[in-house]
Queue: 4 jobs
Job 1
Amino acid sequence: MHRTMSSIALLTTTLLVATAAVSGPAAASGSTGVTRDSILTAAAGIREPDIATGPATDAAVRQIVGRACAADLDGAAQLYQWRASSVDGPGVTGLVVRAAIVEPDGSGSTTSRICAFAAMTPSTSSEHRLSGSYTFGVEVGYTETRELKGLMSGSVQLTTVLSVPRDRYVSAAYLTAAGSSQRTVHTTVESRVETPKTKKQLKTARATLVKSNAAAKRTYKKAVKAAHGSKAKKTGALKRYRASRARAEKVYLRATRTFVIKRTGHTDVESEAFTVKASNYEEIY
């Protein structure tokens, strides 16, 4: 099957898309604004031939290419063609991309380049983070091979980006990566710890309660007497009296309680190891 624009060339999970007609050094790895959602959408579209021509897949790839290759695809730059293969492994997904980009050269003409890179993200959840290492390589002009190695970290991993003038021709791009997709989980475990009380402790706690309540009552009576019939002052005195009794009751209950609830925090790391390989060799016309 071989088509352009409204059609597609497919080989296993490798995809060719021609989007429109109209160079630079390697860029550092990282994410550069590429989102996890765009990687998931693009990889799913490339993986499933029935939806690979859909607008969601094309929009996701354009977003990734525009960010990764520093190309103003909403402005003067044009994405002429792209090829991508899906990256699939336990806990990780992504794509290997070669994109033909045409841009103004500042002199009224245009220049073309091939931008190649790979993008990966945890497939399990947005809370997972990648770790490990990768090797990303390209074949230039069928004779020269360039390989770049790097470390993975974070929820979105972009390999080092290679941009080559189109007349040099990037005939293939490939990725090998090994590492893990991890998530740190914090949990709190509650346990009941018995704290038995002696008869003496219970008796002391009861006596303290009685003494506190008696003192609160004396204070209340004095406040009522000093209110001289003022309803507001009497109401205030009653509130203070009730609050004093409530505090004394809490102290008593704490002193006589025969158990406590102990809360212990635990930190666990969920990890899924992966080793992935992906490549694409289809021509860019």
Note: The two ends are 16 Å apart (CA to CA).
Job 2
Amino acid sequence: MNSYASYQLQDFIPFSADVYFRLLERISETWWPLHLLSLALGAAALVLALKKRDRLVWLLIAPVWAFVAVVFFMQHYAQLNWAGRYVGYTFLAQAILLLLQVVAGFSRSKLPAAKMSAVAGSRPAVIVVRLGISIGLGIALTGLFALPLMAPLSGAGWWQAQVFGIHADPTATTTLGLALILLRGWRLWLVAFMPMLWLLLSGLTLWVLQATEAWLVFPVLAAALVGIAVLCRYPGKKA
């Protein structure tokens, strides 16, 4: 028991900060200028989400998760961490799950009429649900714009900037925000689980590496939990 108690979090991170951030640079250098297209795609998905075009949103986002699974995890991250390939498989599973959202058309508009009428006309419910959706919007904007700016603002340079559709953290963050805008109930939990799990693991890794991005990832997770709790409290209410 004493031997297990002697382990610290950094003992489970098999690479240094320099190695990890050089990995981010290599990915950025390899795929530039795809960043511009991926950011435009993410912004388009956010606009469509605000217009309640659920199926189009997931149709755009699902291939992004598949791309990050193969390029970020299987081709690069797996070189640093043996678990990277298996995380890539979970990202592929998330891509399939998002495609199922396209096929099934699950959204807040598909909820039973009884649930929707249960809170109809409730002004507090409308306010609370709008708060949850606003949290989702904030999280999506964080993934699209705030996370990419963390590296250059901290003096690390633009090549270390993590960008939606290229790197895992902003992809998971933006998807989490979109899920809060579009989904309710158990479907929200289902779609949000993988992004939140990865952000937790990544946040702990960034904390050990003393990266400034960690200060953004953990508040995102806390806000997401609040948003999910709010939206699941009034699952049938439209804002």
Note: The chain is about 75% helix and 0% strand.
Job 3
Amino acid sequence: MSALLCIGDSHTRLIGSKPENSRFKYGRLCPAEVPGFRATHLLSIKGATAAGFRQKDHQNSPFVQATKAIKRLNPDFLVFGFGQVDAELSCYFVALRDSINLESALETRIAKLGSYLDACKDVADGRPFLIKGLNTSTLHETAALHRMVARNLHQELGLTKRQVVRALRLRKITTDVHRQLNTQLTTALSEAAQARNFPYVDLRKTTGLKERPGLSKPSFCAGGTDIHLRLAPEVESGFAQAIANKAKELLGTRLS
């Protein structure tokens, strides 16, 4: 049987069920259970972006953390799950910092997806891997979206939270705009992966509302300003099974 390592942003913690009495911690290798694998570990790096996943000298960069984890565990199969932070925060940061419209900011993030996927291939170093797509947005209230963005970005922008909220209101940023941004970025990621023949999975058909693409069903939302899908057995098992199915296609008899 094979070993699996899943590397990504904070949303990676949703993959697989967690062993009883295990303690999850961001930035550390944590155990999980995925069908067919003798061992599964998650490296969930809070705040990491697809745009920033590249070779850097900084010893704590996500790329370096991924390289160290792969060297330590020598997994047979990898999952890369970056991109959510790009949609939830980075687009707004670039738009407000550079005084450009959100569409132009989104284009800068999409332009970096190719480099992100190439970096995944480089760090995998010949191992089979797949790309996990973005989760559907969990924010149903525009006021909650504004609070979330302001809380996370005001210091980096050198603004007060109130100033960030005012800027978002002036730009008419709503949850509908946010879910459309989410959809555009994940579509671009899926297409870029497909162009490179990289396997790709997401749970958007399971978690998303058909009538409002890019937005999660309320039952999958934790509420308030929480941007993560609710940590529920159907989410954990859904990701685990989707990954197991793709891995079986690539690993064949090595996965059982």
Note: The longest strand covers residues 37-44.
Job 4
Amino acid sequence: MGEAKRRKQTGAPSPRSPQGRKPLIILLAVVIAVVVVAGLYVATKPPAPGSDDLPVAAPNADEFPAMLDQFGVSVGPADAPVVVREFADFQCPACATFADASKRLKDEYVSEGKVRFVYFDLPLRQHPNAMPAAQAARCAGDQNQYWAMHDKLYAAQGEWSGSNDPAATFTRYASNLGLEERRFRRCMDTELHREAVEQSFQVAMQLRVASTPTVMVDNIPLTRPGWGQLSAVVERELAKANN
């Protein structure tokens, strides 16, 4: 008995062609893709400056003790209406991620005189190359290239993080930045800025800052350090300062 005649007599349905399922599979894939994209958009969409989800200062919180800024490295006008402070470790992966946000902050707000940015060194004990990296940035600062070295150290973190001789790598960076190599190397060999880095570390301990990156907009600690929350809080505080 032929297959078609058997199905007719028994009432069995005809098997679906694989080609008949293709439109359904494609439609399902499109729906899943739309849902994923929508979810990512909602998850990564920067909050509005007026959002209730943005962090605020703790009740009765004191102003940040501005006299401590001398122990960090700052850029921007002293009378900027908003001050952003970061406590960070050059060997910390999360700090390397935040470095993109701090660079954008300098480009879009500091350069316009709206924000002053202060970077505090907080080299964690578990990161042996964080201390020499912090000194390398300050040695570059002696030749007016602190922020260029700051950005390079974070951008190339994977290259030097596990090195047994990070100073050699930092010296190469200094040379590539056009610095006087012998002066830079002498600065590193004598640990000229070790005390300054340690003073910055003590500021963090005094303020009970224990994790990196810790980012504060005036006296408001960010809960999700990144460009979205950072820019939204900065915009909100700028609006307050201008009222």
Note: The radius of gyration is 27 Å.
